[in-house]
């Protein structure tokens, strides 16, 4: 995971360095998300989505058409999954507090519409798992994961609106109470940012 993090940041630094910084803006960003936990395994399946939120800062630099938009966001998200063994079904609700560092690259159309995509690194600060069972074992979640984001954006005066999908490239966990399961966090995100300058 450390090697992936180093490659991630070196790639972004090189990409930013190749852009001529004709535009630079920075500001706060807030938003809501709809997250789920994608699982597979013999006894596990995905269940309901969970609403979440995020808040932080963004910056944008680039030219008239191509731009880079790095962000640092505090994110609260999660999802539900269930385990079925015979006639018994247990529902689980996972919640995560994390720091997301997406670095979006994209291009502008007609000076206000944007297409963008890029990698994001997530550092999990805290996690919680509750269930309908009488006791719930604490999962061994990874402390950092990598994902990708892709979506659309609108620039309206000093407001920026982003609608993005985040898909996991790394696993949150590989097993739960001895049962193999590939758990991954995915989410739809709607954000509003204000360009201070």
Helical proportion, percent range = under 10%
Major sheet strand order: 1-3-4-5-6-7-8-10
Radius of gyration: 18 Å
**Biggest sheet overview:** 8 strands, antiparallel, barrel
Structural class: mainly beta
Give me the strand/helix succession: HEEEEEEEEEE
What's the shape?
elongated
Cα(first) to Cα(last) distance is 36 Å
Report the total helices: 1
Strands, total number: 10
Q: What is the average of the pLDDT values?
A: 83
- Give the low-confidence spans: 17-21
Percent of sequence in beta strands: over 45%
Give an overview in words.
The longest helix has 17 residues, at about 1-20. The model is unreliable at about 15-20 (pLDDT under 50). Helices cover about 10% and strands about 70% of the residues. With about 200 residues, it is mainly beta. It is built from one helix and ten strands.
Give a short overview.
The protein is mainly β. Helix content is 9%, strand content 69%.
Structural descriptors:
mainly beta; 8-stranded antiparallel beta barrel; 1 helix; single chain; 9% helix; 69% strand; 197 residues
Annotate the secondary structure layout:
Blueprint (H helix, E strand, L loop, with lengths): L1 H17 L4 E16 L5 E3 L3 E13 L3 E20 L2 E22 L3 E19 L12 E13 L2 E10 L4 E4 L2 E16 L3
């Amino acid at each position: 995971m450390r090697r992936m993090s180093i490659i991630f940041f070196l790639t972004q630094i090189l990409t930013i360095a190749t852009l001529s910084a004709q535009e630079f803006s920075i500001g706060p960003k807030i938003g809501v998300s709809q997250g789920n936990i994608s699982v597979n395994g013999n006894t596990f399946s995905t269940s309901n989505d969970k609403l979440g939120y995020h808040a932080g800062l963004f910056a944008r630099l680039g030219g008239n058409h191509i731009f880079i938009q790095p962000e640092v966001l505090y994110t609260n998200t999660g999802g539900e999954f269930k385990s079925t063994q015979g006639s018994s079904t247990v529902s689980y609700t996972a919640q995560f507090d994390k720091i997301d560092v997406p670095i979006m690259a994209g291009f502008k159309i007609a000076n206000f519409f944007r297409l963008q995509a890029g990698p994001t690194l997530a550092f999990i600060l805290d996690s919680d798992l509750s269930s309908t069972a009488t006791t719930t074992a604490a999962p061994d979640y990874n402390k950092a994961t990598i994902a990708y984001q892709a979506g659309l954006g609108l620039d309206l005066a000093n407001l920026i609106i982003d609608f993005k999908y985040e898909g996991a490239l790394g696993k949150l966990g590989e097993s739960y109470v001895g049962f193999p399961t590939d758990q991954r966090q995915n989410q739809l995100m709607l954000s509003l940012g204000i360009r201070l300058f």
